[in-house]
Amino acid sequence: xxxxxxxxxxxxxxxxxxxxxxxxxxxxxxxxxxxxxxxxxxxxxxxxxxxxxxxxxxxxxxxxxxxxxxxxxxxxxxxxxxxxxxxxxxxxxxxxxxxxxxxxxxxxxxxxxxxxxxxxxxxxxxxxxxxxxxxxxxxxxxxxxxxxxxxxxxxxxxxxxxxxxxxxxxxxxxxxxxxxxxxxxxxxxxxxxxxxxxxxxxxxxxxxxxxxxxxxxxxxxxxxxxxxxxxxxxxxxxxxxxxxxxxxxxxxxxxxxxxxxxxxxxxxxxxxxxxxxxxxxxxxxxxxxxxxxxxxxxxxxxxxxxxxxxxxxxxxxxxxxxxxxxxxxxxxxxxxxxxxxxxxxxxxxxxxxxxxxxxxxxxxxxxxxxxxxxxxxxxxxxxxxxxxxxxxxxxxxxxxxxx
Length: 403
What we know:
single chain; 403 residues; alpha/beta; Rossmann fold; seven-stranded mixed beta sheet; 18 helices; 14 strands
C-alpha cells in the first residue's frame, strides 16, 4: 500500500475489534502494520460461525493490510525480539486491560526507554484510571453505561443493541485520530507520547447531542425507533412491499404521498406539533405508503428531490452499484486460496493507492519480519523456535483443524 502513512510502522498487540479496526485503518492509509500475536493468536481467530478455510469471519473483517508475527512476550527471547521491533517502529498500539502491558514488560516507561520517539496508544475499556478502571468491558457494557442502549430501540420496548459494534468502532476511530495527532506533534517536538482512549469515553462522546438535549431541557431522551429527536417525519416507513427511509422534507413528503391535507391538520402544522404527535403522523404516512411498493415510492420521491432511500439487507448492499463504485466492497485473494469479501475504507485521497492484502494467517510473516527488518541470522531464528518464543506459521493448519 502507498498512502499518506507510508513509512510509519505500527506494532499492534490486539484482540477482537477496537484495536484491530484502528490498526487496519492505519494500514489502509499506507502504514506498515505488524500484528504481534501470542502463540494462540488474536482471540477473534477462535470465534465460531462462518469462516473462510477455517479463518474466522470475525477476524477476517478487521485485519487486512497487516503482517502477522507470533512472539511470546512471556519469554525472554520473545520479549527481546519485540523490543528490537520497538526500536525501529513509530507506534505501539494495544487494546488490553490497564496494567497488562506493564506486566508483559511493555509499558510506556519501558518502551520510551527503548525508543523516545515511540507513540504508545492504549485502547482500554473503562479508562486508565478512576473507579471503573479494573472492570472488564466490552462494547455492549460501554453502550449501556454511556446511555447508548437507553436511546436505541422502539418506544416502550426493551433496549436494543445497535447492529454494528458502535462503541468499539467509536473507540477505534478516536484512537486513529489520537495516533495521527501524536505523530504530527512528534514532528515538532521530536518525541513520542502515551495516549489513552477508552471504550466508555468514546461511547459517551457519541452521545453528545443527547447529553446536550437533556442539559437544555431537563427531559431524559428516550428511544425513537428509526426516528430522530428533533424532526418528524423521519425514519423507516413500511410500504406495500419493503421499507423506505425518509429524511426531513416536510411538507413535500405529504404532497408526494397524496396526503397534502396533513399539512393543514393542527397536530402537524408546526415542527413542535409534529414532534408532539410523531406517532400519529407516522401512522398517517404509512397509511398512504401501503398503496405502492418501496421501489415505486422512491421513483416519486427522487423526482421531487425528497431525501429518501431504500432499506437494504446485506446481500443487497454488497451488489449495490453506488457502494461498489465507491470501492467499498473488496475481494481479497487469501493466502489459503480463494477470495475474501470485506468492507472497504471510505477515505479517498489523491495519495492513496495500492493493492490491499488479505488478513494474514497466524505467524505468516514471522520469518520475513525477523529476517528483513531485524536481520536475525538463522541461528537466532532456530533458537526462538526451539524456545517456543516465536511461531513461524507451522501450527496454523493444526489450529484451523481444531476449530
